[in-house]
Amino acid sequence: MIKRTLGAIAAMCGGTLNDSGHAALTVAGISKDTRHIKPGQLYVPLAGERFDGHDFAADALAKGAAALLWQTDRELPGELAGKPAVFVPDTLAALQRLAASYRRELGLKVVGITGSNGKTTTKDMVASALSGALRVHKTEGNLNNHIGLPITVLELDETVEAAVLEMGMSGFGEIELLTRIAQPDIAVITNIGEAHLQQLGSREGIAKAKLEIAAGLRPGGLLLINGDEPLLRSGIASLSLPEGAVVQTFGLGAGNDWTASAIEIGAESSAFGVTPSGRAAAAALNAGEEAGAGVISGLSVPVPGKHNVSNAVAAVAAAVRFGLTAEQIRRGFQGLKLTGMRIEPMRAAGGAMLLNDAYNANPTAVRAAIDLVAQLTGYRRKWLVLGDMLELGPKEEDLHREVGEYAGPDKADAVLTYGPLSAHTAAGAAKRFGLPAAGTGSAAPGEEPAVLAFDDKTALAEFLRARLAPDDLVLVKGSRGMQMEEIVHALMRE
Fold first, then answer.
1. How much is the pTM?
2. What is the domain-level CATH number for residue 52?
C-alpha cells in the first residue's frame, strides 16, 4: 500500500496542507469507509447522492486515521480544526490523481483489461500466468470503476512486480479515465458484445468505448485485441498509439498473432496450445519453447469453453511480452483460481453437473455459453436455464428472442427460462424446437417438454430437480440482477 508523508500526498494529489507542521507525518494506506479504516491511513471522504463521507471524518480520526482529505466546498467543523488534513477541490478527483501519481512512482509492470465479456476471467488468467515468475497483485471483486481502480492502485505494495487491473464502464470516457490512471504496459480487449447497448447505442459504440484503453498505454506498450472481432480490427485504424506501441491480435481464428491450437474441452477444464506467428513467433521462441515455430503446448485452465481458451491465449501473450518462459506460464496456470459464478463447475445433490455462470449475461456471452454446452458430450440430457439479460435497450425483446433461436436442439435438449424478458427467449427456442409455443412452467410430473418459461425461480428449480439424472448437464446463466445462482443453490441442496 502507499506509504508517504502527508506533504508528499498533498503534492501527489494536487492538494494543500492545512498546516505545514503536518508535512512530515507518515500515512500508510487509504480508506473511504470508516467501518474498515485502520490506524495510520488517510481517510478519503467521498460524497454521493444519499451520503457524504465528510460527515464521518471525526469517526475516522477516532478510529486511528492519520489524516484527512477535505473538499474545500465543505466547512471544516470546529472539532477537526488543527487535525492533519489536505484540502482539495474534489476528493474523488484527488483520489484518482493520487493513484496516477503513485503508479508513476512504482517500478512495476501493469496489464489493463477491458471488454464486454470475460474481463474478470481474463484478469484471473493473466495474474495466474504471470505468477509463475512474478509477484502479482490483481483487482479484487468488482473494484473496476472510477473509485475501485484507484483504490486498487493505492493498495499496491512497492515490492509488487506486476499488477493486473480490470476496467469496467457503462459510457464513453470512463475507460479513458481508468487507463490514464493505470498507465498500462499491456492493454487487453477481450471482445465486443451487447452489454451497455442501452447507454452506448450500438456495438460500434461499444467498440469505440473499449478502445479508449489505448489512450493510457505507455510508450513502447502492447495493445492486445481479440482478432476474431471485426469491430476491433477496424477500430484500431483510427487509434493514435503512443510512441513505440504496437498492436497484436489473439483468438481462435486463423490470421491472429496468437492463436489457440489443439483445443480439448471438458466440463471442468480446457486444454490447448498457443501458436504464434510473425513477431509473436519470435517472442515465443525467446520464451524458450521447443519447436521451430515457437508453439507453446501443454497448457490447461480449470474452466471449460473455447471462449475461455481465447481469454487464456491473451494471458499467454501478455506473459511472453513480460519475458516469462513457457514453463513459467504452465506453472502459473496450475495455480489458477477463477472468481466465482463464471462457468463454475458444481454438482447437484443427485450428481448432475451444474455450470454456474450466473454472474452476468448479454447476448454474446449467452451464445458462447450455449456453444460450450453443445461442445460437451457424454451426457444423458443437456439443460439450458436462462434468465433475463438486462440493460439491452429498446431492442431487448428481439435480442432475447434471437438468443432463444440460437438455442436449438442441436445444442441442448431442453431450455428453461426465468423472467419476463426471457419469455421471449423461450418463444425463440420453441420455434427452433419446432413447437407451436413455449410451455408456461406448469407441466405435469412425468412430462418432458423441451421449452418452458417460468416466472418463479423456486418452481423452475423444483421442476428441474424432479427430472435431473446424475449424468445430466445444466447450464445456469442470467444477468446479475436476476440472481440465477439461487437456482444452482436449490439444486445443490439435498
1. 0.85
2. 3.40.1390.10
